[in-house]
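Methods — Computational structure assignment.
A single polypeptide chain was analysed. Its primary sequence is given first, followed by the predicted tertiary structure written as structure tokens.
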Amino acid sequence: ASNTNRNFTENPLERLSSGKRINSAADDAAGLAVLSKLEAALSGKEQAIKNAADGQGLLHTAEAGAAEVSNILNRMRELAVQAANGTNSIAEREALQSEADQLTAEISRIADSTSFNGRAPLSGANVDVQAGASTGENINVTIDAVGSSDLQLDGGRVSFDTSANARDAIGVIDAALEKVNAVRSDIGASVNRISSSIDHLSNAAKNTKIAAGRVSDTDVEEETTRLTKSQILQQSSIAMLAQGNASKGMMLHLIS
């Protein structure tokens, strides 16, 4: 009886010290199976959140680069409008052209050097973000390239040698701006979609964690009651055993 009571005492102690109701399959085999599934689901959701955050990182990096390209194009348009004025001297046109050429090269540099985890999204990207723990729960992110050649700014299309060519260049730059704005709009839409996915995953992970806790966590009040009861029973057994031994000793003494 003493050994049995000791076992009953040890189990509540283990649960109270670990904070877990299930410490081995012997505690609750069915509960352990449920807990394993919940923990696997939680792990998958937490990894999906990290994946989605990486996807957002890629998009934010691309947006920063695309915003700079947009700023450069606005400056190039300003130069083109200035060059379209028929009063410009040859020297002034050459100076305007030199700056425009440098800005065109800078756009290509930004597209090539904007990088996230080894990827250059502004050189064109098609990425599947695994934003869920199951097959098919992915978000496709597509980013069109915005290098100078992709925006049709190369090949002498931005020429300020004459007022007429400068006016044509305004149209070329406007088309480039329109394309970059479309890219930025797509990036923003993808960011919002991934943000919604992260919110959903976070709530799902929170609920899964709560469910797992209900299965695995110790009910402190219940286990404390069990421990107290077990200790009382154990103490009673010890007292009864001691009393029995004392009675046996007294009988032997009387007999002798």
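Note: The beta strands are 125-130, 138-143.
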